[in-house]
Amino acid sequence: MDEILRVEGLSKQFVKKSMFSSKKSLVKAVEDVSFSLYNDEVLVIAGESGSGKTTIAKLILRAITPDSGKV
To answer: Where does the ABC transporter domain start and stop, copy by copy (predicted)?
Structure first.
């Protein structure tokens, strides 16, 4: 089987600003995600709202830059 996608140690954080103060905090959206996808395989990313599914997709598509790891 041919490997068509490899994700290694992918992590992404975002700065969350408080609505009522100038305080900022870091939110870990994705932390140390790794997987490989091979020809003729199907990958499903499932989870609750806010669990990082869309962030993983944007990282794979290179729409956003990871803090660490590689695609």
So the answer is: 31-71
Quick check: 28 and 52 in contact, CB under 8 A?
no
Tell me the DSSP string of 16-70.
EE-SSSS-EEEEEEEEEEEEEEETT--------TTSSHHHHHHHHTTSS--SEEE
Structure confidence at residue 22 as a pLDDT band (50, 70, 90)? confident
pTM metric for this prediction: 0.86
Q: What is the DSSP letter of 4?
A: E
**Residue whose token pair is 């969350």:** 16
Please give the tally of structural domains in the chain: 1
Token pair belonging to 19: 């609505």
